[in-house]
Amino acid sequence: MAQSQLISSSNLSFHAPKQSELLFSHENKHCSLRQSWSCQGLGAKLSGLHGNEIVHQTRLLARASSDRVIRAVLSSEGKRGKLNKVVLAYSGGLDTSVIVPWLRENYGCDVVCFTADVGQGIKEMDGLEEKAKASGASQLVVRDLKEEFVRDYIYPCLRAGAIYERKYLLGTSMARPVIAKAMVDVAQEVGADAVSHGCTGKGNDQVRFELTFFALNPELNVVAPWREWEIKGREDAIEYAKKHNVPVPVTKKSIYSRDRNLWHLSHEGDILEDPAHEPSEDMFMMTVDPKDAPNTPEYIKIGLVEGLPVSVNGKKLSPASLLSELNEIGGRHAIGRIDMVENRLVGMKSRGVYETPGGTLLFTAARELESLTLDRETMQVKDSLALRYAELVYAGRWFDPLREAMDEFMKSITKTTTGTVTLKLYKGSATVVGRESEYSLYRQDISSFESGQIYNQADAAGFIRLYGLPTRVRAMLEKGL
Fold it and tell me: Domain named Arginosuccinate synthase-like N-terminal: which ranges (predicted)?
């Protein structure tokens, strides 16, 4: 299978003619040049020259011709090679705006910008087409992926119970494969031979994008400018933009690095880089300050079918609409904030603060319903696999056969996870106060402290003797019995 490769300047070599390639015989006025220019013209220029002057003039002509060849190739191929058309993951920010002319300059290619709507907000989409074309792109392709994102990526992770390192609900991790998949589709539609992204060489997202590219179309070339160019930061990028007449975004630069989609909002950088520093309250955007949350609790009922959410307070909603509804409800009650230090895939630790109001409510409800519908052994196996599932998603291996196989297992064991869970929301907390399921394994007639026909309490004596036999034998050995 062909491997995706990064085209770089090493793919092209330019050679000036060697002196041995210029053969002259002044005695018989014969010349043989292994280049494209005219021997007759050169012979006329050399007719009045002798000795070292011939060699000197010959070198000058050879250098001039070589320079013309190099300029001609660079004008069509770029400094690092030649690509026909590149699909760029485009946000309209400074970095991706600069990448457009950089791709054209360095790869001599047409650039098609691609933007995925995964619920980052209307403001993020304003004026994108004008920005993209002003930067030099031939077109902008926008796809609404919100329903696909929630249905095909968020819900499987929710069903699996996938949480990375005890806290992180995988907001960015789940969004990257759906965006990258759409980029591969667009590349095929527009006839592109490469894709590009603006991820840095220190983060997880570069891996998530590129593993998806590899899995879905290994023949696509991948260009990652942050791993190639000389731009080191924001000031360099602004200077490059001005030099290439790219309109620099005039929005106020946030002190935080943020990523937002329908599932969550992440905050990184600046004061958060010190793990001992408390986040500023004005940083949060999806959730209110707990002190400002309503003084009266709110009760909501979430309905699930086969492990997946279908309704809120009895109202059936599409996946994206349901999540939006819960984001609004959870946000006004200050639910879903986490502050954590996580292990990035590339090896370093990083500190991030996340807001996931609707996702927190859904995870709480789904896990609670399983307490009714899953037996002990199944729940323990599911929990152990959920850790591995989360690691695969975090590492960008969404299209890995192992994750897909695990997903089938999760789908199978949650067939009976159908019912409702009632939550009490109050100033940052979501407390489970009720759960119901027609497939409940809970039996009041068995669990009751009152005597029943099914469970005979006297049976416990024999069970305890057998269950405790290893403990008893060990104690007997220690006491010499």
Answer: 85-247
